[in-house]
Amino acid sequence: MRKVDSEMLTAIRHGDNFSKGNRNVSFNDGVVEVRFHGHLICKIEGHRVSINNCGYWTNTTKQILNEILVDWLGYNLFQRKFDWFVSTPTGEVEYTGDWLALA
């Protein structure tokens, strides 16, 4: 895990605003918003995590979203044959773009 992502996850867990490099974490009315290069890629509301790659199918975007999912829900975001999937306790869910809500 990259140091900046570890710091980002610590900020999320402690409810702290965070900005470093191209990552930003803010809290608005109990909702955590995670931005990467200014794009809103994740919202956390209680035990619900919503992800969105904003059309950027990059390794870095996937890695950031995976770190959040692993830390918050224990789920994994991974790639198989160019397609993205989230492993959940009930099975794999394909991520096809746009918002995906997980709890």
Describe it for me?
It is a single chain. By secondary structure, this protein is an alpha+beta fold. Helix content is 26%, strand content 44%. It has helices at 3-14, 59-73, and strands at residues 18-20, 23-28, 31-36, 39-45, 48-51, 76-80, 83-88, 91-95, 100-102. The strands form 2 sheets. Strands 1-2-3-4-5-9 form a 6-stranded antiparallel sheet, with helices on one face. Strands 6-7-8 form a 3-stranded antiparallel sheet. The radius of gyration is 13 Å and the shape is globular.
Distance between the termini: 23 Å
Q: Radius of gyration over alpha carbons? A: 13 Å
SSE ordering: HEEEEEHEEEE
Number of helices: 2
Specify the overall morphology. globular
Give helix % range: 25-40%
Derived structural class: alpha+beta
Mean pLDDT: 96
Low-confidence stretches: none
Strand order of the largest sheet: 1-2-3-4-5-9
E-strand count: 9
Query: Largest sheet, if any?
Result: 6 strands, antiparallel
Residues in β-strands, percent: 35-45%
